[in-house]
Amino acid sequence: MKAHFPLLICLHLLLWLPFVVQESQSKGREYLLPILEELDDAVEHKKQYHTQKEEKIQALKHQLMYMSGEIEQYECYGKLFEEYLHYQADSAVYYLNRQSELLPLEEYENGEEEVLIDQAAVMGVMGMYADALHVLEKIQPDKLNPEMRAKYYRACRSCYGWLADYTIEQRVKQKYLEKTDQYRDSILLVDIPITADIARAERAALNGRAEEAVAILEKYLPAGTDDMETLSYLNYTMYEAYLAKGDVEKQIEYLARTALWDMKRVVREYASLHKLARLLYEQGDIDRAYNYLNCSMEDAVDCHARLRSLEVTEVYPIIDRAYKEKEAHERAVVTGLLIGISVVSLLLIAAVFYLYSWMKKLTAMRHNLSEANLQLQAVNQNLEQTGKIKEVYIARYLDRCVGYLDKLEQYRRSLEKLAMASQIEALFAAIRSDQFLRDERKAFYRDFDHSFLDLFPHFIEDFNNLLVEDGRIVVKPGELLNTELRIFALIRLGVTDTNSIAHFLGYSITTVYNYRSKYRNKALGNRDKFEQEVMKI
Asked: Which residue from 266, 300, 320, 332 has the fewest beta carbons nearer than 10 Å?
């Protein structure tokens, strides 16, 4: 059972490893977990938010069926347009067209201009930026009332901002950024304070004055307004401020808050969630990043938001590949764990049977031990008697030994006389034969070869690497070392004296010297240092 204990510990560590890794990845972002978990829940229940949105839209359509006045219809079409603008762009276009059919109306002095601004807004959502600018160019801002003029400037700023995001060529991009900044300045002159402050903070962040932007926005957060759209813009601008500061954790926090408000106000055209996905991917939170990115892609497609679709498409392959690699790694880990659990289970089952058999053996051993104890008691009694007998007979035993030695000496002398009288030439031939010595010498060399190769298993290969190609030694089948190799094996062991080597191997000094000279001349490198290289093997 003790033999399986390390295996059980390893299995326990493998089971807990994914949780330890996940905890280490989230360490340092603990304060962000509540907002991220709240966003996770909002993404998970997105369909419920959409259902509520659809119910609200259906209620407006139902009201529209019973409206007969043009003003009521105009206002209802406007509400439907606002509901659909960032939710489903093609439907927004439909209701905007229906609204424009009712113009002109005396009650709306800037009705035509409002419809044109809304047309530009929905075109921007759909990626038709050139058309949107063409529409906006038809409007004369000096003829608009203050509220409509602020809406016009916001539309122009958004349109040029989209063009800047969409454009790759730097010179053109810079031109659009300058136009965006101009209309941002116009917003500061005519818009309401909170919207103007958002524009002011945005400009400060883009110009590198992050602290100024944060100071402007902090007075409105976290509860400076009840309007969810404004809260979304506030948090997104705060993200841009911390982007300028390079504070990644704050970027994650305010992008998450922006995305949460986007989910709650049920829009599908947004930039927050896919940017948050990229940041989380860079921080190692691949699961959340993949989930958020899928949500962004789905919403952008359903809304027909071209720019958002392109933005998501840029990062989607990277996160998708990382997510699939992570899934493959997790499947491999699970497979390994299952195999490990199966092996451990089999070992435990075998251990149970093994212990059961040993329990039976132990029971039998205990029974035998009990019987042996009884026998031992009897033997001890006999030993007590035997001890007394030894004292009596030991002196007689010594005398008998001395007598036997004398008899053996007499027997040896008689054998010698008999052998000499009987002319036993075969006996003397056997005594004079050196076959016994040759066999013992071969056995000795064989034991030497085994012992040496146990110590230096690659000696033959390394020795041959010191020689030229045609001078390398090939051992015959059945041999471990031949004579030449034994000479250099002794040198490797530190026996360098030729006399000692010749005595050890039973060869003449000249023979050993010739072997050493022969292979020194076949050395691949410096011949004078050949034997020193052998000793380094």
From this structure: 332
